[in-house]
Amino acid sequence: TYVVPSNQTIILDATVTHTASSKCFDFTGASGWRLTGNGELRGGSTRPLVQDPNHFGLFILDCFRYSIDGDITVKYFGAVGMYGDGSSETSGDVSFSSVSGLRCEENHVNSQLLNGFQQEYTTFSNCWGVRATLANGILETGNIYWHGGGLSHGYGDGLRLQHPVIGGNPHHGVFSGCEFNHNAGHNLLAQGIAYGMDFADCAWFNGGSSTSGDIYINSSRGVNIDGGILGCDVRVIEDTGQPHTGWNAIRNMHCFPVDWD
């Protein structure tokens, strides 16, 4: 494990292999750092079919004002390729960080951003999550802005939006110009969303059949999908016993023939 201190620049221009059941790059508590280059982090040689809960590529915990840029690939990790967590802080400063050009592929989960103010206000530009085992992306934290790239071709779900177990200020961010295509599970799985999420001018194509790659909104409110191309099934489930049911919207889209439930 390489423990990264604050205010350090790491230039990754090689392939680094880390097969041990631990963190490859550990950024816990570090701020003001930069990761750049065109290298690759590998957790092994093949996509993990079973989770190893301790095996992380980039482990980002309680960090502020960091940046990732260049053309970096993170693959074959048994837990998460890029893991960001605000330690479930429900108040305080926010991250104000940026990630550009990162490609996470064939990890158990490609990117996972959990609850907490210290992970909020992170911007992703032209980043990809592809061919993950469980999900290309799992998102709890609020004010995340992801522009370009996408979460596609997963063996599980494309993007999971889930309400955090511990309070906080989740979701109400934006995905724009992204591809959510050809995931074997759900292209979008939104469960218990309280504060909404916006998707602008994105593409949604199923996983090759009407039973894969759908948009599934369960007991949520404020999920707005506006513009783009819709080529998958849409399912909206409202459980009146859940606290976050309400209005959602899908509008202004070019629609291929799909089923609506």
How are the elements arranged and paired?
Blueprint: E1 2-3, E2 9-12, E3 15-17, E4 23-26, E5 34-37, E6 40-42, E7 56-61, E8 67-68, E9 73-75, E10 80-85, E11 97-100, E12 103-105, E13 109-113, E14 122-130, E15 135-139, E16 145-152, E17 157-162, E18 174-176, E19 179-181, E20 186-191, E21 197-205, E22 214-218, E23 223-231, E24 234-237, E25 249-251, E26 254-255
Parallel strand pairs: 1-4, 2-5, 3-6, 4-7, 5-8, 6-9, 7-10, 8-11, 9-12, 10-13, 11-14, 12-14, 13-15, 14-16, 15-17, 16-18, 17-20, 18-21, 19-21, 20-22, 21-23, 22-24, 23-25, 23-26
Q: How does this structure look, described?
A:
The structure is a single chain. This protein is mainly β and 261 residues long. The protein contains no helices and 26 strands. The chain has strands at residues 2-3, 9-12, 15-17, 23-26, 34-37, 40-42, 56-61, 67-68, 73-75, 80-85, 97-100, 103-105, 109-113, 122-130, 135-139, 145-152, 157-162, 174-176, 179-181, 186-191, 197-205, 214-218, 223-231, 234-237, 249-251, 254-255. The chain has a 16-stranded parallel sheet that branches. The radius of gyration is 18 Å and the shape is globular. It starts with a strand and ends in a 6-residue tail after the last strand. The mean pLDDT is 91.
